[in-house]
TrEMBL record:
HAMAP family with a match to the protein in the record: Trp_synth_alpha
Involved pathway(s): Amino-acid biosynthesis; L-tryptophan biosynthesis; L-tryptophan from chorismate: step 5/5
The enzyme's E.C. designation: 4.2.1.20
One Pfam family recorded for the sequence: Trp_syntA
PANTHER family, A to Z: TRYPTOPHAN SYNTHASE ALPHA CHAIN, CHLOROPLASTIC, TRYPTOPHAN SYNTHASE, ALPHA CHAIN
One of the record's GO molecular function terms: tryptophan synthase activity
Keyword hit for Transmembrane helix: no
Catalytic activity: (1S,2R)-1-C-(indol-3-yl)glycerol 3-phosphate + L-serine = D-glyceraldehyde 3-phosphate + L-tryptophan + H2O
Name the record gives this protein: Tryptophan synthase alpha chain
Primary enzyme class: lyase
Active site residues of this protein: E48 (proton acceptor), D59 (proton acceptor)
Family: Belongs to the TrpA family.
TM annotation in the entry: none
Length: 259
């Protein structure tokens, strides 16, 4: 099943999508399997699997230090893919990989796309690759049925939003703030309008991400979007082995009445 179909199945049940972000290999590569299987058991809709990178673009301090920890464990794109492949049969939740372009080019685009599919990757986010340059990897991804997810920022002009919304695959990653990843206390007030416009130009699910860190945030964004992506809060909770916080965030997507 494609990433989009997976998410639409969640939405058809009346739930909203919950997508946790994890830094692969934070705590060592051996943590990857138990973490993914436990999140899957909690009923998350997909998992964004981040590849640590020496030169990240949009990462705030929490994700950045998680990346440094993973790198100190010797984690690489190749090792993550090999590890995921080793428990492929246990994975039922769609995986969305977040990696920068350089590791993909170093891997070899066709080899990466093939190996990623064999590892259970259904979608890909490449934050430092502008949509205009996505032709470099898009054909290889298409061949392996891997959706290339586009990020839409708050500052994109309407024409560009429309273009990105049409080009995005799997879902649209709607960034909720101007700036970097990380927990936030509050959000801009006109977000409801922004999401309404985004929903209007998109035919695929629209998920909100950046700064979402409490059950209340999750509920609020689920009223205006099809679901949420939570990164920093999940990374911190995993570090502290605090599964009740994660469970509360997931549960907050299950009692949503649309506006
Ligand atoms: O950490 P936050 O604020 O909850 O946001 C999710 C984000 O961390 C995750 O999706 C992500 C991590 N690194 C990225 C780089 C670009 C875009 C998105 C990301």
């Amino acid at each position: 099943m494609t990433l989009q179909a997976h998410l639409e199945k969640v939405l058809a049940k009346g739930d909203k999508a919950f997508v946790p972000y994890i830094m692969a290999g934070d705590g060592g590569l051996a943590t990857l399997k138990p973490t993914i299987l436990k999140l899957q058991q909690l009923g998350v809709s997909a998992i964004e699997v981040g590849i640590p990178f020496s030169d990240p673009v949009a990462d705030g301090p929490t994700i950045e230090t998680a990346g440094e920890r993973a790198l100190s464990h010797g984690v690489t794109l190749k090792k993550v893919i090999a590890q995921l492949t080793s428990f492929y049969d246990d994975i039922t939740v769609p995986l969305v990989m977040m990696t920068y372009l350089n590791p993909i080019l170093a891997y070899g685009i066709d080899a990466f796309a093939l190996d990623a599919r064999l590892a259970g990757i259904k979608g890909l986010i490449v934050p430092d690759m502008p949509y205009e340059e996505s032709d470099v990897i898009h054909p290889a991804l298409k061949q392996q049925n891997i959706a290339l997810v586009q990020l839409v920022s708050l500052t994109s002009p309407p024409e560009r939003v429309k273009k990105l919304a049409e080009a995005s695959e799997g879902f649209i990653y709607a960034v909720t703030v101007n700036g970097i990843t990380g927990e936030r206390a509050s959000f801009a007030s006109q977000l409801a309008e922004h999401f309404a416009e985004l929903k209007q130009v998109s035919s695929i699910p629209v998920l909100a991400g950046f700064g979402i860190s409490t059950p209340e945030h999750v509920e609020n964004f689920c009223k205006i979007a099809d679901g949420v992506i939570v990164g920093s809060k999940i990374v911190t909770a995993l570090l502290e082995d605090d599964w009740s916080t994660i469970e509360q965030l997931v549960q907050a997507t299950k009692k949503i009445e649309a506006l």
